[in-house]
Write a structure and sequence with these properties.
The complex is a heterodimer of chains A (238) and B (223). Chain A is mostly helical. Chain A has helices spanning 59-72, 75-96, 100-117, 128-144, 169-185, 189-200, 205-212, 216-236. Chain A starts with 58 loop residues before the first helix and ends with a helix. Chain B is elongated and about 70 Å long. Classes of the chains: A mainly alpha (238), B alpha+beta (223). Chains A and B meet through helix 2, helix 3, helix 4, helix 5 and helix 6 of A and helix 1, helix 2, helix 3 and helix 4 of B.
């Protein structure tokens, strides 16, 4: 009698070996590794509007800590960032990955990347939370992709650079971030909820619409309205 | 170059969230390479996502900080240097490619070195394989002044102009312009007379019909 074992090949070069369960959104034709929208489409957030009290680290503090990590390899500063962002990145990953072990591993990989890339953080290009979000998101995409991630390349000769004069980077950026935060604080709950669902659940707008029992057009127009207001808030300050 | 037709917010938010399949992502990323305005929109969305990340209910992590620190020190991963901020390299900007990244790498070369397949009536295409299983991607070359071959499609269709231009009966689409259409849109784009129009077209993958009759006519409907 011959017993055959089938062992999934795990690429040796990857630090994350994940077997992929495949629940899918109803209109998604191929299995996807991320959590289904069901049940109930909950994005676990502190309830209510964007709250001021919930924030226990200001954008300026986060920036100063990250700069200390990049410049001085300051492990204490990194610990403060880890204690603040580690559990948030874990929650982000947990919304998307079915398995909490995967979420933990992806969180650790994200925080290690934060340590390694800290010197690349450009203060004129957004907040620390934005920067960490993009690292976490890219890591998540890369983990599940067969090919390399498809992104534009600013060093490509065909790339069209922005011709508008660069703003007085850091000061301007902090002001914009503050205006954006204020604008988000007054977004209607229904619009904010759609932004959360779009960013934190891997679901098409069609499945979001089905789950929320809304016409697809309403979902799209709420997203458009939300960004219309956020853009307007930024332009107001100029 | 002024881009008049941009990525919709609904599509851009999915790009920002990282949830687009390859085919759509390829079209959006290539448009972003040509469109500083939409890159600003993308930054705004990522900033919004970052702020929402601040507000998410934290989940306890399993690892202790000491253990993570050991992982970092043991890994000795390369510490990446500060970004140069130099922007595009001035050298080597001899001729600007028609296909921007990430599209150029995805298809393997710039347009002049690609093998085009005839569609008849002077039109050519290059099917581009993706492994997302849900989109159909191709480059199209429409002879100057001619109509894009008629095609049936269901669901979403993105057309990104990379060379020349086309007119859809109402508006002009030139390099960098992205047309986002769905089944409700009836259009018969015509390449403008001055030069061949090269575009990237992404559609939902054709459905696999069970009916023998539909299977029979599908090759006729699909371009």
């Amino acid at each position: 009698m011959v017993i055959r074992h089938t062992v999934d090949a795990v690429p040796a070069c990857m630090t994350i070996a994940i077997s992929i369960p495949a629940p899918v959104c109803p209109d998604t034709p191929i299995p996807r590794p991320w959590r289904d929208c069901a049940p109930g489409l909950v994005v676990n957030m502190k309830r209510g509007r964007m709250s001021e009290a919930a924030r226990d680290m200001t954008p300026e503090e986060a920036r100063a800590l990250l700069e200390a990590v990049g410049r001085d390899r300051d492990m204490e500063a990194f610990e403060v960032l880890f204690r603040h962002y580690g559990p948030r990145v874990k929650a982000y990953m947990a919304h998307l990955a079915r398995d909490s072990g995967i979420a933990e591993e992806l969180m650790q990989e994200t925080m290690i990347a934060v340590w390694n890339k800290a010197a690349q953080f450009e203060p004129g290009r957004g907040n620390v939370s934005n920067w960490i979000f993009t690292i976490a998101r890219n890591l998540r995409i890369d983990t599940y992709r067969k090919n390399r991630r498809l992104d534009f390349d600013p060093n490509d000769p065909a790339f069209v650079p922005d011709e508008s004069p660069p703003a007085d980077a850091v000061f301007e950026e902090l002001q914009e971030a503050e205006r954006l935060r204020s604008a988000m604080a007054v977004l209607p709950q229904e619009q904010l909820e759609l932004l959360r669902l779009s960013f934190f659940n891997d679901c098409s707008h069609t499945s979001i619409a089905e789950k929320l029992n809304l016409p697809l057009g309403t979902v799209k127009s709420r997203i458009r309205l939300a960004f219309f207001k956020l853009r307007a808030a930024l332009e107001d300050g100029q | 170059m002024t881009i008049r037709h941009h990525v919709s917010d609904e599509l851009l938010i999915d790009y920002a969230a990282g949830t687009l399949e390859d085919g759509w992502r390829l079209a959006v990323a290539t448009h972003l390479a040509l469109c500083p305005d939409c890159r600003k929109g993308l930054s705004l969305m990522e900033e919004a996502a970052g702020q929402l990340l601040e507000e998410i209910t934290p989940e306890p992590v399993a690892i202790s900080f000491n253990r993570l620190r050991q992982r970092i020190l043991a890994g000795r991963a390369p510490v990446l240097p500060a970004a140069s901020g130099a922007g595009p390299a001035a050298s080597g900007r001899v001729a600007s490619p028609v296909l921007p990244e990430p599209l150029r790498s995805y298809v393997g070369d710039d347009v002049k070195n690609l093998k085009w397949k005839s569609l008849g009536r002077g039109a050519y295409h290059i099917p581009i394989a993706t492994d997302d299983g849900t989109t159909m991607v191709r480059l199209l070359r429409i002879p100057a002044g001619k109509a894009v071959p008629e095609h049936g499609h269901g669901g979403r269709e993105l057309t990104l102009v990379l060379g020349g231009s086309f007119h859809d009966g109402e508006e002009l689409f030139a390099r960098g312009d992205l047309e986002e259409a769905d089944t409700s849109v009836q259009h018969q784009p015509v390449a403008t007379p001055d030069e061949d129009c090269i575009c990237l077209a992404v559609t939902d993958a054709p459905l696999k019909f069970r009916s023998w009759l539909v299977r029979l006519v599908q090759p006729v409907l699909g371009i």
